[in-house]
# Entry
Amino acid sequence: MIKLYHIQAEGDPFGGSRNGCKAVIALEEMGIDYEVNALDRMADCRPADAAYRQINPNGVTPTIDDNGFILWESGAILQYLADANPSSGLLPTDSKERAKVQQWVAWEGASFAPALLNFFFAMTAPEPDEATVASTKEAFLGTLSILNNQLAGKEYICGDYSIADIASGAITSLSFLLGLDLTPYPNILAWLARLRDKPSWQAAAAVMSDMDAGKEQIG
Ligand SMILES: N[C@@H](CCC(=O)N[C@@H](CS)C(=O)NCC(=O)O)C(=O)O
# Structure
């Protein structure tokens, strides 16, 4: 059975780990047996000497332990799980199609989530700096435009549902908590509605609560 280290929504000051939710969604989607090892963000992740850092030196979630095989970084976890469960169809076998899915998973980790987090930290700073809030917001909106354009005429990022959707979808809905209006990005809103309706997504409490915050926009 896979052990998933995750910060769950309940009791967490930030409402849980959206990155951890990506692993939850993938495990649910693939019907893999797993148990959650629930971590406390403040007590188990942040301290430099926390025992969890022996498992993941970054002190962040998710991490999986598959019978002693330890893996961290949500994008790598999605890829590992999809590779181990090819019948899920969440990672294409054709090399070009597969590379495209990997491109979007890498984009989420390297560009999309950092842009969102820069905006998030600028907004939630004890004394928010107006210019930083404005510039980080603009940069994040730029990434939303890229995603919205990619989704034009498609149900999912790479056409068929894949780990690329799990990676970016679990992060996008945080926008609602930041008070963003996503109505200029109709393809994103329609895509979020599709994701929200999947039973696997409903198991990811933090993401569902973000989606609830945006329900008037998602519809
Ligand atoms: N790039 C990492 C980011 C993981 C990450 O930042 N996780 C957050 C929760 S979403 C975390 O565990 N934070 C610990 C903390 O806030 O101390 C991944 O994709 O797995």
Observations:
- The chain is about 55% helix and 10% strand.
- The pocket of glutathione is lined by residues 7, 17-19, 41, 45-46, 60-62, 73-74, 109 (CB under 6 Å).
- The chain has two domains: 2-88, 95-218.
- The chain has a mean pLDDT of 96.
